Amino acid sequence: MTELVRYIAQSLVDHPEQVDVREVENETSVVIELRVAPEDTGKIIGKQGRIAKAIRAVVKAATVKEKKRVLVEII
Q1: Which domains does the chain have, with CATH numbers?
Q2: pLDDT tens figures, 40-71
């Protein structure tokens, strides 16, 4: 999942080398933390959060078969 989020984020931002994706796993869930350059934050979130919602929807669809809940946090 981290590679999927990394690919999507690098496609959207002006500074793809500053994209950092980390995965933190708990007993019941997996949290994917996405960090980008400060000037690229708006491009990842999008107007009214539409791009962020789309990224979360793609990750959710890709992880349907897993037993754990997957969350995407933009930091």
Answers
A1: 2-74 (3.30.300.20)
A2: 999 999 999 999 999 999 999 988 888 888 99
Which structure tokens are listed for 11? 């496609």
Distance, CA of 72 to CA of 66 (rounded, Å): 15
Residue 20 near residue 45, CB atoms below 8 Å: no
pTM of the model: 0.88
Q: Are 47 and 25 in contact (CB under 8 A)?
A: no
Instruction: Give the sheet arrangement for strand 20-25, strand by strand.
Output: 20-25, 29-35, 69-74
